[in-house]
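Schema walk-through. Below, the input block comes first and the output block second. Nothing else is stored per chain. Lengths vary across the set, and this one has 405 residues.
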Amino acid sequence: MLSVSRERLSDWCRRNLGAPVDEVLFEHAHLSVVTGVRLTDGNLVVKTRPFAERLHGCFEVQRILHERGFPCPEPLVPPTPLDGLAATAERLVPGRALLAARAAAPVLFAGALARLIADAPSVSEVPTLDPAPPWNGWDHGAPRTWPSADDLDVDLNETPGPRWLDATGGRVRARLAAASLPDVIGHGDFESQNTRWEGNELLAVHDWDSAVSRPEAALAGQASAVFGVTGKPGGTPLIDESAQFLDAYAAARGRPWSAEEHEVAWAAGLWVLTYNAKKESVLIWTPFVRVRRVVFRIPDGSTAKSASGQHESPRVPRRSPQQAPVRRETPGGKPFSPTGAMFLTNIGRGRRCKVEDALDLHKAGREPSYRSPKCCALCSSPRSTAPPSPRPTCTTSARSPSTWS
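--- output ---
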């Protein structure tokens, strides 16, 4: 885990901000160390992490957005050495409220992201933002599917299976690599835990190390898959909520999604979920196939189809109902529960079904085959066999699923 000497932090503040640290208000460490400090002229946040050239671009994105009135902390010090790391400083924004769970959350988050991207500078106005963080990094350049695991000392490509997850990641990566859409600048980790609100008004967006240049549809699609994540279990949006987010984003920007944008948006959302699921599958202490059986257990007791294609009877976890879920800690210190991986792989599989159904299997004269009750149980939540409200129809030429391989 990263750490910063308090004495050197105070010296850094004296040199770059004109005053030493009077008091440390808080400190959080994972991929970076975020420290709230009180100086004689106000409260600031100092963020330290390993140096990367892209940090200069991230700082400029935040600076320009703040100057244009977008709600983000005022950046004060660009990347500067501190204790062998790169440190930046920004003004502390008071107020720590996440957006309360409500039906309007997809619309509010979509509107906030649309405003951010509209206010952001063009790609040519700032230094490079490459390479993107791995959860945005489908173009990482290596021949195999998965990029580096940002907070794990493991090669995800050397960890076998689940086969359907690796296959889905490979197909999604290929689809995103084939996109011909122009890049814009946006936020690549637009989760609830990186935002603060006052009622329905956006107070601040944090974590500007996640500034990236990606197609607008990819930025919206990834955000639609994670906007509800708060750092606690259960925040990943359901598929219908992601669809509502994308509809609201299109309305906020004033034009509908094209056929290619629609494909790229859903594929980008699926990329971040499969990447997270792949990482969590590495951490599960039991064999993944056992967890997979729990994932695919249908509540009504009917037979479930596993990823291997074999039907099997419903199974239950080995722990008894009286036992608490097993909790471990990731190398970054965050609590981990196998439930998180089950949820991510479950909704990831559901998104794969939706992408194949709505985007990849459109044939001449064929409508998408929406979820059956059994497939619903494998996706995110039970629903009827009736199709949801009409979605944009892909008008590209007919092609088979193998073209995504």
